């Protein structure tokens, strides 16, 4: 009887292997579908061998893999420099897939421009390939300080697309403006802020006059002022950008722009809001009075309706204690 059982099992083995193979293809297909259904990042060459990946202006979701922001990469003679690593493990893989449409050169370094989730939650994906991750001291501190709270919110918003994500803060830091040479290309890391987050790290390419600003600059989308933001320092940080005089700014959100575009959509809004809230505070008004501030001159910015009221409240709350 035992021999008969063995023979029957042997006869079933090919069918079982075929079934397992089909199941494997199905699972792989589901994972690929998550990526291909995501609203694609827009690849734009902003200077020779310098690329921006423009993300959608929407909330994090399972479809966009928390890559609802801008990223960038520079192709040098022997390697690639990546700016920001994405909001999930799958999001990091999606960023790499865009790089591979341009070059097969190895990624040598990942720079995080800020502590917001989509700037660094993909770090481990690249670190496990032996790629260094680098940012400023202030940015790394913000990553550590808000890691758990951001994991809670981002994992909930991205649902199944969160699978495998294990956020790792940048492992190397700089404390002041630092010049690096990557594949023969000179770049500068410039810590500024706090601004939108506890510390932003600008990436400046002096040869190309291109600046990757991270969340210091928003264009076409209303910026977000959160509990972690410091709007007075955010305004002051614009002096650094003016001194650089970039020809192209790749913002944290929105289309690439020049200095005047960055000032119009970000700097002018911050100055306006602080001025209007200051008048209310000087008049002895309560926070509820911010609803009377007419912000309509900025209503052309995306997500205006969802965010302008909250921005005013955050500014009022901070200015009360200045």
UniProtKB/TrEMBL annotation:
Which UniProt keywords are listed?
Hydrolase, Membrane, Transmembrane, Transmembrane helix
Superkingdom field: Bacteria
Coiled coil region boundaries? none
Q: Which residues cross the membrane?
A: 12-32
Q: Name one GO biological process term.
A: antibiotic catabolic process
Source organism (scientific name): Amphritea balenae
Tell me which residues make up the Metallo-beta-lactamase domain.
68-253
In Swiss-Prot or TrEMBL terms, this protein is called MBL fold metallo-hydrolase
GO MF annotation list: hydrolase activity
Which Pfam families does the UniProt entry name for this protein? Lactamase_B
KW Membrane (keyword) present? yes
Q: Which family does it belong to?
A: Belongs to the metallo-beta-lactamase superfamily. Class-B beta-lactamase family.
UniProt entry tagged with the keyword Transmembrane: yes
């Amino acid at each position: 009887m035992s021999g008969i059982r063995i023979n029957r099992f042997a006869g079933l083995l090919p069918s079982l292997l075929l079934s397992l193979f089909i199941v494997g293809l199905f699972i792989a297909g589901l994972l690929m579908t998550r990526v291909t259904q995501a609203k694609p990042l827009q690849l734009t060459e902003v200077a020779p061998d310098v690329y921006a990946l423009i993300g959608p202006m929407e909330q994090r979701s399972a479809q966009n893999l928390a890559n609802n922001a801008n990223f960038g990469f520079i192709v040098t003679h022997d390697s690639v420099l990546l700016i920001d690593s994405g909001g999930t493990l799958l999001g990091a893989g999606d960023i790499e897939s865009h790089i591979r449409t341009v070059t097969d050169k190895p990624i040598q370094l990942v720079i995080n421009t800020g502590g917001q989730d989509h700037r660094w939650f993909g770090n481990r994906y690249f670190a496990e390939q032996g790629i260094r991750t680098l940012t400023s001291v202030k940015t790394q501190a913000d990553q550590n300080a808000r890691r758990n709270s951001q994991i809670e919110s981002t994992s909930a918003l991205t649902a199944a697309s969160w699978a495998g994500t294990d956020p790792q803060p940048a492992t190397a830091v700089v404390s002041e403006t630092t010049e690096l040479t990557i594949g023969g290309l000179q770049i500068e890391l410039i810590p500024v802020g706090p601004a939108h987050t506890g510390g932003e790290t600008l990436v400046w390419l002096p040869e190309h006059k291109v600046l990757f600003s991270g969340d210091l600059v928003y264009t076409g989308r209303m910026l977000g002022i959160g509990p972690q933001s410091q709007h007075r320092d955010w305004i002051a940080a614009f002096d650094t950008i003016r001194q650089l005089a970039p020809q192209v700014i790749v913002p944290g959100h929105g289309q690439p722009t020049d200095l005047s575009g960055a000032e119009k959509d970000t700097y002018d809004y911050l100055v306006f809001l602080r001025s209007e809230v200051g008048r209310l505070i000087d008049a002895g008004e309560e926070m509820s009075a911010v609803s009377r501030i007419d912000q309509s001159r900025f209503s052309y910015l995306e997500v205006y309706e969802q965010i302008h009221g909250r921005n005013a409240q955050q500014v009022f709350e901070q200015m009360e204690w200045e």
